[in-house]
Amino acid sequence: MPFSPALLTDLYELTMLQAYFAEHMTDVGVFSLFVRRLPKQRNYLLACGLDDVLAFLETLRFDQPALAYLDSLGQFSAAFLRDLEDFRFTGSVWAVLEGTPVFANEPLVEVEAPIAESQLVEAFVMNQIHLQTVLASKAARVVEAAGGRQVVDFGLRRMHGIDAGLKAARAFHVAGVHATSNVAAGQAYGLKIAGTMAHSYIQAHDDEGDAFRAFAHLYPDTVLLVDTYDTLAGVRKVVELARELGPAFHVAGVRLDSGDLRALAVGARQILDEAGLPSVTIFASGGLNEDEIAQLLAAGAPIDGFGVGTDMGVSRDAPSLDIAYKLVEYAGRGRLKLSTGKALLPGRKQVFRVERDGVADHDVIGRRDEPLPGRPLLRQVMAGGRRCPAGQVTLDAARAHAKAERDRLPPRLRSIEPAVPPYTVELSAALVRDWEALRRQYER
Amino acid sequence: MPFSPALLTDLYELTMLQAYFAEHMTDVGVFSLFVRRLPKQRNYLLACGLDDVLAFLETLRFDQPALAYLDSLGQFSAAFLRDLEDFRFTGSVWAVLEGTPVFANEPLVEVEAPIAESQLVEAFVMNQIHLQTVLASKAARVVEAAGGRQVVDFGLRRMHGIDAGLKAARAFHVAGVHATSNVAAGQAYGLKIAGTMAHSYIQAHDDEGDAFRAFAHLYPDTVLLVDTYDTLAGVRKVVELARELGPAFHVAGVRLDSGDLRALAVGARQILDEAGLPSVTIFASGGLNEDEIAQLLAAGAPIDGFGVGTDMGVSRDAPSLDIAYKLVEYAGRGRLKLSTGKALLPGRKQVFRVERDGVADHDVIGRRDEPLPGRPLLRQVMAGGRRCPAGQVTLDAARAHAKAERDRLPPRLRSIEPAVPPYTVELSAALVRDWEALRRQYER
After folding, report:
1. Out of A182, A228, A336, closest to residue B337 by CB
2. Residues of chain A with pLDDT under 50
3. Total of domains in chain A
4. Does residue B349 sit in helix, strand or coil?
């Protein structure tokens, strides 16, 4: 079904835009995107999704179908719709780079533009940063649990739609996942793609051994799926194939996809080793997540790589974040909200990461213009509606950045176990003073 | 990032396709899509997403960028790639209509085509049916809990990507949700769109009352958001506005978005009623789900409608289903899998819903060709790669079908509490005989 990208927004944004237009409210509105609290299973979040936000802002236009649709709703004036025809995003964006670990209340993105512009894009900016940050943060845990073994994304079939399938592969790459099974993601992002074979291929042959033989003939260094009928019997058929093929046998591995993966991996390893096939690796899949991977490896399962699908693909233990995109300044004045449980930090901000011996010790959220100690995490990535150099980062550079930044976190934070104590995030004295002064104004 | 729709598949599908091509395996493969078990918080699933599957199958082509990308991978032969140039989906599809309640192990879709065709589309078919069934099933619970009050989808910002945002609005419509805030979904599907105002609009004005006045001037029958600073003080400002405007006051409602919604709704209702404004309704939002809605209403909260976002938008309590797409027949012979915990029912199947006094009593999963009592749920929706009349259902018809079908479920199934006993699904004697005969063959 066709739709106009500019309409990827909530109706109230457009009704508010018309109100701003009617009231001649054209001053700069600064919106800050942050996560109010971390899910209890996350020691940090890995910021991701910025590139898609910047690409959207650069190309945002109301096309004729969008204007015609809005006109059909009968609540927008001809003058306002004419104004939308010329709508462009002309503002600035400050953001932490993709792959940066972030914590509760820290701005990931601040959007500064005439308020109609920074207001309209709320849903899209949140949607993309939320999705990719949810998924990169989950994948970072899976990668950590795998301890250097390859992790392959198998999740397309149960992710939430096509866009999620593509963006997940992207976010997983940033988080250190080795490859994806999603061919379109390979095409779109130049990612490494990988795959083995499905049960259906084995089932379609009358004999499992015949299926192995035919597949290995076509793909000599393939990974054979051995659990369709009886896993260890399947492994023995791989051994038979090796004897049959002799030096022409180059099968890279076997895949286990069900049952007691630890016991089966031990059994498979033993059969392969006894047959003189130590180079045939064991690849495991089937409902895996970081906790199960950690348990398998702690129990000594001789597994060389993991295919991870649904749990990582929907971030099942924490499929959403309490992410917010809030007005913090309008017309040069800090703005607050006093709603219960939904306080926000006013004004343009910066996050300073204070390190000790190369390891992150704590963060300070301060005013953007403060000269505080520590490494400032927010960079200007867009000015006047165009990307700055800091907004032009390749996906591989984001992956390298994520690795470097995670390597600078203390081990208790990188762990998949809850960090005790959690990371410390402080507010600068100047920011607290601004906040309190503003609260006093509002409460008068 | 551009991608080719035909590549929305896992790499192994394409390597298997090349193997089928090399082995001249062109017989019909029948794949059955079903959910192995229901999440414990779901008494039934509401099948959804079929229309997107059929549209995909009708238009599936390998475009030149897709072929060039596959060629660049260096693992596909020129002959195979030439074969893909002419690839079309030419098969049949049987499916339950969108909006049909279904249970564990019941086929939602069966795809029958030369095996390359039915194999390739696995990921897309699963992805779309999974997403929309997850979301429609969740939304059906929210609609049930709201007991006839309007439910509006506010979830775009935290759904998993753009496709999910659009498809969710579609699935929610099928499930009985009143409207969506997503403007692009309104454009794409002709859905009713709705919205109120955001905190940012209030914040951007120096005075909350001024913001209300300006917005109500432009949109006389709007809903005003009253919780930015102090909820009941906000309601009193609405009353002041009513006094000021007199007969020109047409504000339809107030929205509460934070705090103790029950207490605030009672307080707001009292203030409005005492001011002679009984027609101003109360609309609640802010982290709601079916359980909270049920609790609010059970506690007598005078709330007239609900905006529901993230919890419904990602189906937070059950963001994924154990959905499978499995080969059940190839070359006219039933196919099995014996993997632990992943058994499947062989052959082409039908689901018969047996009703008593117009209420569903139990289902029987049987062979497609069995003349069993009960209403057959699977219909042929595609033949020869083109839709049959049963595959051409409007979204409003699907919504009506969903309502009619849910009305025929026993009340314990429609309830958001776990059904005791759960619904009964039996296997027909003929299907069990087929299954056992096949198991004996496989286990020989």
Report:
1. A228
2. none
3. 2
4. strand
Contacts of B65 in chain A (CB under 8 A): 187
Put simply, whether the predicted model's pTM sits higher than 0.95 gets the answer yes
**Residue B185 falls within a domain, yes or no?**
no
Would B232 be classed as within a structural domain?
Answer: yes
- pLDDT tens, B241-273? 999 999 999 999 999 999 999 999 999 999 999
pLDDT at B444 over 80: no
Helix H segments across A310-392?
310-313
ipTM of predicted complex: 0.97
| Same domain (yes/no): B67, B130 | yes
Scan residues 171-200 of B and list those with Cβ closer than 8 Å to A.
Answer: 181-189, 193-200
What percent of chain A is predicted at pLDDT more than 70?
99
Cβ of A5 and B342 within 8 Å?
no
Q: What is the pLDDT of residue B442?
A: 79
Distance of alpha carbon B82 from the chain centroid:
37
Interface A–B counts its CB contacts (< 8 A) at 339
A403 and A271 assigned to the same domain: no
Tell me how far apart the alpha carbons of residues B346 and B325 are, in angstroms, rounded to a whole number. Answer: 12
Residue A338 and residue A196 in one domain: no
CATH code of B224's domain: 3.20.20.70
Chain A residues in contact with B186 (beta carbon < 8 A): 7, 11, 69
Q: CATH number of the domain at B28, please.
A: 3.20.140.10
* CA A210 and chain centroid, separation: 41
pLDDT of residue B66: 98
CA distances for B223 relative to A122, B220, B282, B305, angstroms: 20, 9, 9, 11
- pLDDT tens by residue, B86-141: 999 999 999 999 999 999 999 999 999 999 999 999 999 999 999 999 999 999 99
Instruction: Tell me the two tokens of residue A18.
Output: 């018309």
What digits encode the pLDDT tens for the residues A9-63? 999 999 999 999 999 999 999 999 999 999 999 999 999 999 999 999 999 999 9
Same domain, B430 and B330: yes
Please, what's the b/e burial string for A32-49 (b: 16 or more CB within 10 A of its CB; e: otherwise)?
bbbbeebbebbbbbbbbb
Q: Are residues A337 and A299 in the same domain?
A: no
Give the structural domain span for A408.
Answer: 5-136+320-443
Contact between B199 and A31 using a beta-carbon 8 Å cutoff: no
What stretch of H or E contains B325? Answer: strand B323-330
Are A382 and A388 within 8 A, CB to CB?
Answer: yes
Residue B331 shares a structural domain with residue B280: no
Q: Do B200 and A319 touch (CB under 8 A)?
A: no
B352 close contact with A: CB closer than 8 A: no
Interface contact B12, partner A, CB < 8 A: yes
Task: Evaluate whether residue B191 is within a structural domain.
Answer: no
B167 touches chain A (CB under 8 A): yes
The residue among B237, B268, B303 that closes a domain is B303
Of B249, B279, B303, the one marking the end of a domain is B303
**In a shared domain, residues B375 and B439:** yes
Pick the closest to residue B261 from B285, B237, B238 (CA basis): B285
Claim to verify: residue A129 and residue A168 sit in the same structural domain: no
CB-CB under 8 Å, A339 with B183: no
